[in-house]
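YM 10:42: DUF937 domain-containing protein sequence, as discussed on the call
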Amino acid sequence: MGILDSLENSPELKGMLGQLGAAVIPVVLGQVMGNGGQGGLSAIVAKLEQAGLGEQVKSWIGTGQNLPITAEQLQEVLGSDTVKQLAAKFNIPVDQLSKVLAQQLPAAVDGASPNGKLPHTA
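YM 10:58: structure's back
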């Protein structure tokens, strides 16, 4: 899983989800990003860039500070149906899921791109 390991211990994540269970979000993020959190990384990055969020993506992959993405932007990129399906599958409110994913995705991409480059297997 690599890039998702740190999410399980994220204080922000645990605080927001409370009784919903912080262990669920790494699994959701893994599904958003593809097989085991690695297989779909290039695909999600491409989707974000096509949606006009290239500057944010570059900041996550680069070695500097990560620019934020909003829950609304992420939901638009993934598609509201996809977000609704994920939320229903894991029994998490859609707005809460979108908000947490928007907070955690930059760190996940950043963690998956050591030295400012996506791995070849992404």
